[in-house]
């Protein structure tokens, strides 16, 4: 599962992976930008979710021209490529996601409650089969090869975590099949281990795009942090076009509680 969030919530799948670095399976997951607390006492701030406007560009098959391969995203490296017998690599470019829900973030005596906000996910051109996914609060690396796509590492700025999977975790299992399980563990430093497990639960459709529904949970040793995520992964795009995530608990002195949904713009 691709944790595409925690900080916009971890999108496990790319999306969609809020601790979707913390969770792994489609491309995700994650939390709204977390404002830094200021002042000398307990404060609570409410922020309205901004409206994001998707960008589009003319369709082209030239490998070096800007290409729009799906509504709500803009690519910069031409049509996606397919590894031998493996999955189609996610097209490089910028993906826009809309959001609903809210989160509460606490650091010491400072507490912030805010509406979830839309965000941009930037996918790099693969280098030696590795793509880097970046959103305002997470950096995730995925490996594409002839046998599948794997979550290699996840950095979650909101919780000051840098997690690396010793054995890359399928994200999602390939080929994607209902009933297929997946699991993995990542070293997050300081003696902390991120454990992720999940399963492909059903076939589905979001906005007319064929998807697989993938559920996952993530925990961090030495903390009470729990991330529960559901992703709607589209094999045709190589990412989750929709993700819901619930995060509760604390880590490294930060407390986080959220219930958010992220959807690829215009679906």
Task: Summarize the structure in words.
The chain has one domain. Helix content is 0%, strand content 48%. The chain has a twelve-stranded antiparallel beta barrel. The two termini are 21 Å apart. It is built from no helices and 14 strands. Strand 9 and strand 10 form a beta hairpin. The model is unreliable at 1-84 (pLDDT under 50). With 267 residues, the chain is mainly β.
| Strand order in space, largest sheet | 2-4-5-6-7-8-9-10-11-12-13-14
The global form is: globular
| Main sheet: strands, sense, barrel | 12 strands, antiparallel, barrel
Order of helices and strands: EEEEEEEEEEEEEE
How large is the share of residues in beta strands?
A: over 45%
Low-confidence stretches: 1-84
Mean pLDDT: 76
Q: How far apart, in Å, are the first and last alpha carbons?
A: 21 Å
Number of helices, where a helix is a run of at least 4 consecutive DSSP H or I residues: 0
Radius of gyration: 17 Å
The amount of helix comes to under 10%
Structural class: mainly beta
Count of β-strands: 14
Total separate domains: 1
Notable features of this structure?
mainly beta, 267 residues, 0% helix, globular
List the helices and strands and how they pair.
Blueprint: E1 73-75, E2 93-107, E3 110-115, E4 119-123, E5 130-135, E6 138-145, E7 148-156, E8 161-170, E9 181-187, E10 193-206, E11 209-220, E12 226-234, E13 239-251, E14 254-264
Antiparallel strand pairs: 1-2, 2-3, 2-4, 2-14, 4-5, 5-6, 6-7, 7-8, 8-9, 9-10, 10-11, 11-12, 12-13, 13-14
